[in-house]
Amino acid sequence: MQKKQTLSAFLCFALLLSLVITPANQAASRAPVRGKHGMVSSVSEIASQVGVDILKRGGNAVDAAVAVGLALAVVWPEAGNLGGGGFMMIRRNDGKAVAVDYREMAPAAAHRNVYLDSKGEYIKDSSLIGHKASGVPGTVAGFAMALEKYGTMKWADVVEPARKLAADGFPVWYSLENSLKGAGKNLALFPESNRIFLRNGKPYEDGEIFQQPELASTLDRLSKEGPREFYEGRTARLIADTMKANANGWITMDDLKNYQAKEREPLRTNYRGYDIITMPPPSSGGIALIEMLNILSRYDLKSMGFNSSRELHVKVEAMRRAFADRSEFLGDADFVKVPVAGLISKKYADTVAASIKLTQASSSEKIKHGKPTAYESTETTHFTVVDKDGNVVTNTYTLNGSFGSFVTVEGAGFLLNNEMDDFAAKPGSPNMYGLIQSEQNAVAARKRPLSAMTPTIVLKDGKLWFALGSPGGPTIINTVLQTLINVIDHGMTIQQAVDAPRIHHQWMPDQIRYEPMGIVADVKDKLQALGHKFTDRPGYMGDCEAIMIEDKTGVRLGASDPRRGGKSVGY
Ligand code: DON
């Protein structure tokens, strides 16, 4: 009897211990989606499935990524797009990495003061709502460049799944229903947007089939005539006509014809032994990410503990400094000199970090940008694809705000971006995201607005380990930073790292943003005692879509962010 009791006590103890210490119980996250061959993580299960179908047909990660991007233009109209732009980071299994920059360009009619009145004041909403908020779209040119140089399939074959989704329709899901309703007031300002996206006042609900015949025709033309059709054919004409009728020809046939996607050399750094490959200008994301990693590498974040007051304090101080530099130095490097090498050097991080005190918060008023060495660039969506050969694509693209400028191109069925708001419409004054920016990012004809989009790849021993990215305006950079640190410093699984609560600080305003239930009260108290200030309106940030390669098996682990209901699909 005695023996039996001892045995059962032992078994109970062993069970309890195993519950406490097995990795699956380190935090209450789902297991990532597993796929032996390929994986797609995106905000939409339909789009992820489109990508996996392409992979199963023998397409590579770039073929699948282009098909996913075009499918998202149909099923996630708030950010997936033909009328916007973005960045695609590609790393082939032979080690070659490139960044395809298909960011929008300002039309020829744009100039520094285009959004200011005669007194030099910003004209409310002028860079946010309506036809003049749009830059020249880059998505079609970027996808075509990526496919031609790094894909294997024909353009028409990767366009077809999107065309079919637009023609046959797809069931609206809850997130889409919500965002359509949320944007109702602004979409209703434009008759074509009101008709297509709000069904003239009767918005689509969860489960209803949403067909987009005009968009299907546009995709059909693109499929048959090739990507230049968008810039020189009937689609270009429809964009130019919409602009002529409503905005004095803000975007012209010439602007469209002259649009150029560009291949750029990614930025690289090493963080605690892992190689990081990330986005150069015209994104600010890669530079700020590297500057923060360089600063944080001075601290033992692991022993400080995840989201402890000490760890949060140094993260916030790193964010404060990198965003102060962003504000001062960054812009389109094709137009202005950006001290890239200086900002991402480890030596520079040492000088910047010297002002961090562990016992006191800095004040953003007093933290100005640093002095890097001499000169030598609310709604987005991210998806990541890994194929059977280990090629990876990590792509963030956007219309900027949810549903962009709210303007639909008449007869073409797609929305246009409001990316012009990413310029400093009035240098020194905050934009939609509260970001203050300098003359470096002032408006100019054919210039690209500064972005925060940060598609990023992490290598272990020279091989792909994980890839990630997120929407969220300026919070993108900090979402990528924290997810990366969660894996590398805190040893989280990729899904735990994506799920974990996030914070954000962007120098100005001098406050910590955090997620509901994201910081426990006594940690907040300690940070306040150090002098940190908090927003009084916590809210969720980002939608990180990531894929990791499992160490021993090579299985692809898909981690989609619970915040927007995305889904990884693998095979
Ligand atoms: O390029 C940028 O930084 C912004 N246009 C991104 C906007 C965004 O992420 C909004 N998403 N929630």
What does the model show?
The chain has 571 residues and is an alpha+beta fold. The chain has a domain of 318 residues. Helix content is 37%, strand content 14%. The chain contains 20 helices and 18 strands. A seven-stranded antiparallel β-sheet has the order 1-17-16-13-12-9-8. It has a seven-stranded antiparallel β-sheet with strand order 7-4-3-11-10-2-18. The longest helix has 21 residues. About 3% of the residues have low confidence. Bound molecules: 6-diazenyl-5-OXO-L-norleucine (DON). 6-diazenyl-5-OXO-L-norleucine (DON) binds next to strand 10 and strand 11. 6-diazenyl-5-OXO-L-norleucine binds next to strand 10 and strand 11.
Radius of gyration: 24 Å
Overall pLDDT: 94
Shape: globular
**Bound small-molecule species:** 6-diazenyl-5-OXO-L-norleucine
Q: Residue share in helices?
A: 25-40%
Number of helices: 20
Identify low-pLDDT runs: 10-26
Q: Structural class given helices, strands, pairing? A: alpha+beta
Number of strands: 18
Measure the end-to-end span.
52 Å
Q: In what order do the strands lie side by side in the largest sheet?
A: 1-17-16-13-12-9-8
Strand-residue proportion: 5-15%
